[in-house]
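Run Thiamine-phosphate pyrophosphorylase through structure prediction, thanks.
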Amino acid sequence: MANPPPATCARLMLVFTVTPALDPRTVEAAVRAGDVACVVLRAPVGEKLDAARLAEIAAVAQRHDAAVLLEGSEGLVAAAGLDGVHVAAGPGLDSVLRLLKPAAIVGAGGLVTRHEAMVAGESGADYVAFGALAPEAGDFFRVRDLVEWWAELFEVPCVGVASTLDEVTALAGAGADFVALSDALLASSEGAAKVVAAAQARLATGDDAQ
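Sure, done. The structure for Thiamine-phosphate pyrophosphorylase is below.
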């Protein structure tokens, strides 16, 4: 990894939407800029993804030991050489778990209540993720509270999604095993790699270091 494991023990996840403008070199530079455990790829709203395009992006992250998951579409995992899926909790989660486990990673996402989280954790999901990968204004405080509650009681790893660097610090402090950097945060004018490096500094020091 580009950096040693952070003092908080939290690791980074990166969220990218696979638009035509997404350059695999951007993804690779971002992965190399911090202790990145995983990249989650998303389809643009209303669009389908091409397995070859996914495979191209996944390869640059996987060569740096980052797992690559796809939001939702489990049917493309094998074709694109991905490591698993990030799937919304609910009735469809059990079927995805049966289909892909244990060969692939299955994370349960979009959790907004304690009950949903406990059901997902008991189902065999590899992690539980609180909130949406594209958070709405006002989501953060609920997400932080759920992370703090989960981290104190359960062993299944939990993810909190951050839209700002301050949220990275707060989620790590609340006990998140992984802090996911939202697509909007990574799309900062500073560039994804610089955002990842700044987030890594937050994790390493536990404060607002830049």
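The domain at 11-205 is CATH 3.20.20.70 (TIM Barrel).
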